């Protein structure tokens, strides 16, 4: 698993992919910058992902930009978690824990 893909949150809706690329390019080579948009409206969702060329550059970007102000918003920057961890199995696990907790009362 490469840990050079970064999650970038709390973005201004005025921030563009170019803005994102420029902000991170100061800390290394940006391979990819993607803003997430709403599927229906096409409007920005306030977060995106930036892939740096090395884990060291990713760490440098986190150190420099996590909490930094871009377009008047303090960014959240950290290593992106793989999609599998956010959905799928975890949801069923939460549901089972919840029903187990209810049964113990």
Secondary structure blueprint with pairings:
Layout (H helix, E strand, L loop, with lengths): L4 E5 L7 H9 L4 E8 L6 E9 L2 H11 L3 E2 L2 E2 L1 E4 L3 H4 L2 H16 L1
Antiparallel strand pairs: 1-3, 1-6, 2-3, 4-5
Written overview of the protein:
The chain is an alpha+beta fold and 105 residues long. It has four helices and six strands. The strands form two sheets. The chain has a four-stranded antiparallel sheet. It has a two-stranded antiparallel sheet with strand order 4-5. The longest helix has 16 residues, at 89-104. It is globular. Residues 85-105 have low confidence and may be disordered.
Task: State the order of secondary-structure elements, H for helix, E for strand.
Answer: EHEEHEEEHH
The Rg value, from CA coordinates, equals: 17 Å
Number of strands: 6
| Molecular shape | globular
Mean pLDDT: 84
Low-confidence stretches: 85-105
Strand order of the largest sheet: 2-3-1-6
Strand percent estimate? 25-35%
**Largest sheet geometry:** 4 strands, antiparallel
Helix content: 25-40%
Structural class by SSE content = alpha+beta
Question: Tally the helices: what do you get?
Answer: 4
Distance between the termini: 41 Å
């Amino acid at each position: 698993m490469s840990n050079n893909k970064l999650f970038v949150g709390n973005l201004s809706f005025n921030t563009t992919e170019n803005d994102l690329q420029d902000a991170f390019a100061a800390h290394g080579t940006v391979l990819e910058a993607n803003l997430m948009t709403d599927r229906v409206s096409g409007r920005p969702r306030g977060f995106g992902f930036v892939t740096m060329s090395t884990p060291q550059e990713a760490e440098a970007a986190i150190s420099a930009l996590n909490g930094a102000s871009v377009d008047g918003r303090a960014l959240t920057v950290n290593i992106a978690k793989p999609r599998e961890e956010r959905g799928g199995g975890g949801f069923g696990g939460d549901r089972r824990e919840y029903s187990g907790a209810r049964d113990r009362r």
